[in-house]
Each structure stands twice: as structure tokens, then as C-alpha cells.
């Protein structure tokens, strides 16, 4: 939130080089903090466990989840989220400061969405929470496609951030739930790599579409495609129930 808002002001009053310098300095903060941690020694027998654990990625349940997380990230990250700034800059003629303010408001909404999603995952079933996340993303995409004013985008930014944070929390929680403790880091990394591939593909596809299709049409198209995740989730949770893996 702070970086988005401050970088927007810097871009307008200074230049983009100053933004990169600020970001570089900010990256030193976690570097300083991480060296303060001392991880306790753990004696875990891992011999021969990595292969069987990673082979679980080839089960029908995991393959369906990989398709789900790829498509969900493609739509949410590479599609809607990354396209909004382009839309505001090109069609709504937003200034860097306005883009930074929008990004900060999205961050506020994302915090709210992550908190609400976490509570929902704890109190309700993972199935219902995942379905709600899909509908929130589709609703937000439709509303973004209808928005033609910067002031309206500010209001919508919080709702989009909420939907974004809600869905992101669901994706990560499910990915963590599916990882095998014998190779938890490796499995989680692979799942997040698949998610990043979705982001990359989404950016390339949606940005290229702007040459021939209006932003509004793209947002509505992404909203409709996003609803297909309902079917992927239905299959996924059915497979989860069949092997009694979901609490």
C-alpha cells in the first residue's frame, strides 16, 4: 500500500528512476530481517521420500488443481489485475499519482479480503469459500468493465482488492493443504510456479487482445471464463472427498 502510493507520487514529481531506487532500498529491509532468524535444527528422515511425494502431483486430484490454479491466476493476476492499470492509463488518462492511489486502495481491499477469506476457511467449508471467491472475481470484473471514471475506479478498487485478496488466500490455503509433508517446499514451489505461468500467459494474452477488443469486452470475457472454475472446483472437491483428504 505504502509503496504503491509513494511510487505514484514519485513518478509524477520526479521520474521512474527514482522509483526503482526506492524499491531497491526497500528490498534491503527484508534482507536485513531474514539474517536475524535462526532456524532450529530438525532431524527429519527424508531418504527416499521426495520421489513418492512428488509423484502425487500426477494424481487426478492434483492435475485438476493445477489446471484450476493456472486458470484462476491467469484470469485474476495476469488478466484483470494487470490490465486495469493499462486501462486507466490509456483510456481514462490516469496520472501516475492516480494509478498509485488506485494501487494503494487495492492493497487495502486485499488485506480485508485475505482476513475475511482466512476466517471463512476456518469457519466454513473450503468448498463454499472457494465458490464464493470465484463469484467475487467475476462480479468485480463486470463492474470494472462498466467503470468509465477515475473516481469510480477508486471506489471499485477496494472491492476488487477484497475479491483479489479473498481468492489469493483460497489458492494458497488449498495449495498448502495439498502439499505432502515429506516434500512440502518442493510441492508448494511447483504449484506456485504453475500459478506464475498462468500470470505470464494471462498478461500476454489479455494485453494483445486490447489491439482489437475494447477493455470492457475483455473484462466481461474474463468474468465469463472465470465462472468455468466452478466446474473445475466441483471435480476437484469430488476427488478430494473420494480419498477423504479434505477436512
Which percent range fits the helix content? over 70%
Write down the oligomeric state: single chain
- Runs with pLDDT <50, length 5+? none
Structural class: mainly alpha
Number of helices: 10
Rg measurement, Å: 20 Å
Mean pLDDT, to the nearest integer, reads 86
Q: Using DSSP, what is the number of strands?
A: 0
What's the story with the biggest beta sheet? none
Distance between the termini: 34 Å
Strand content: under 5%
Topology as H/E string?
A: HHHHHHHHHH
Per the principal axes of the C-alpha atoms, what is the gross shape? globular
Task: Summarize the SSE layout with pairings.
Layout: H1 2-13, H2 16-34, H3 50-55, H4 60-90, H5 96-123, H6 126-146, H7 150-178, H8 184-209, H9 215-226, H10 229-242
Helix pairs in contact: 1-2, 1-5, 4-6, 4-7, 4-8, 4-9, 4-10, 5-7, 6-7, 6-9, 6-10, 7-8
Description:
The chain has 247 residues and is mainly α. It is built from ten helices and no strands. The longest helix is centred in the N-terminal third of the chain and has 31 residues, at 60-90. The chain is globular and about 55 Å long. 35% of the residues are buried. The mean pLDDT is 86.
Keywords:
80% helix, 247 residues
Could you give a short description of this structure?
The protein has 247 residues and is mostly helical. It has helices spanning 2-13, 16-34, 50-55, 60-90, 96-123, 126-146, 150-178, 184-209, 215-226, 229-242. Helix 4 (60-90) packs antiparallel against helix 7.
